[in-house]
Amino acid sequence: MKVPILKIPFDGEDAAMIGRELTGMLLDGRLAMGPQVERFEGLFRDFVGSPYALGVSSGTAALEVVFRALRERGLGGSVIVPANTFMASALAPIAAGFKVILADCDPVYFQLCPRDLAGKIGPGVAAVVLVHVGGFVSPDWAGIRDLAGRHGAVLIEDAAHAHGAEADGRRAGTLGLAGTFSFYPTKVLTTAEGGMVVTGDRDLHASMLAIRQHGQARPGSNVHETFGLNYRPSEIHALLGLAMMAKAGWILAERRRAAAVYDRLMAASPVRAVMAPATGRPSYYKYMALLPEGVERAAVKRRLREGFGIALAGEVYSTPAHLQPLWAREPGFLGRGIGPLPNAERVAKYQICLPIYPGLTVEAQEYVVDSLNRVL
Q1: CATH of segment(s) 248-375
Q2: Of the options 1.20.1510.10, 3.40.50.2300, 3.40.640.10, 3.40.50.300, the CATH number for the domain spanning 12-246
Q3: Of the candidates 183, 186, 198, which has an alpha carbon nearest to the alpha carbon of residue 237?
């Protein structure tokens, strides 16, 4: 049996619909910032349960637009970002003029560690980025939000992995001032490239509308009232998003079904699976697990690929942000020096992610877990 890393959930019906709509779009000539973008924004806004949604060109752009809007409000200084994240979480606020402080993750769910955060937040910290790694929302999210608020900082969600994830009955993206999403091909919902910002703050949304369009509060006016760049999504990407939104419920249900199967199969494995917190329902962008101490991940992945035809998904993440070589070249990007972050380093060393996607069969999952246990 061969088990691929992922299968993107477009089918023949999606292809036919997209083809019809694309033909009309090409003949009409409206390829940017038209009705498809508006429809996609509206559907995603309702999906998340947020008053406002803003489509942009990527998940990184979504974060950068938020932080540029915060600069418009006069905020500056540092942003606390977990080390267990993709570097975009740190690079976006840097691009908007902030410095970053890197914090450790918790050892159970691999999310931002509240204890380490408490030791690093203080005067000069403008925001805390809560990254929902793997599609899991930290069970400590409310405490993290309240801690940030007590220090005058806002909570921004990097929900690139967390389309439809829930915590305490609320969907990811609605827990802080703003939430950002990515639609890269590997994500729970994809438009090939693209991103989205959701917020309940009307003024923040208005600022981001202008920033998305080169700082034009009135698009097409050629009057630039603030600093902005081109962060616009295309009509073509939005069209793919409409196909995704039509089956978003099914995609989430399939990922959760597959995760429940893995939870059962992994109960007797020496590999520790990350289970859902009692307070939440992950989106399962990744099915994360931790190898036993001393096991070499590269060897496990090689044996699974060569001996069993199983390709494990990429880790989240194999190199934590605080160990990236960028900081040695650009120390001015940091709001404080980097020290050891032992949880993030251990997670980075021993984490694996099992294949999970809509349509994954129970037979394939049994084969994956059996093969993993044999390799160990």
Answers
A1: 3.90.1150.10
A2: 3.40.640.10
A3: 183
Tell me how far apart the 2 most distant CA atoms of the chain are, in Å: 65
pTM: 0.96
Q: How many CB atoms lie within 10 A of CB 314?
A: 13
* Lowest model confidence (mean pLDDT) among 31-40, 87-96, 178-187: 31-40
Q: What is the pLDDT of residues 310-346, one digit of tens each?
A: 999 899 999 999 999 999 999 999 999 998 999 999 9
Reference 137, options 116, 103, 160, 104; nearest CA is 160
Q: Tell me the CB-side half-sphere exposure of residue 144, using CA atoms within 13 A.
A: 31
Tell me the C-alpha distance between 204 and 182, whole Å: 19
Domain definitions of the chain by residue range = 12-246, 248-375
Contact 62, 196 (CB under 8 A): yes
Residue 224 CA to its chain's centroid (Å): 31
Exposure of 53 by Cβ count < 10 A (0-12 exposed, 13-18 middle, 19+ buried)? buried
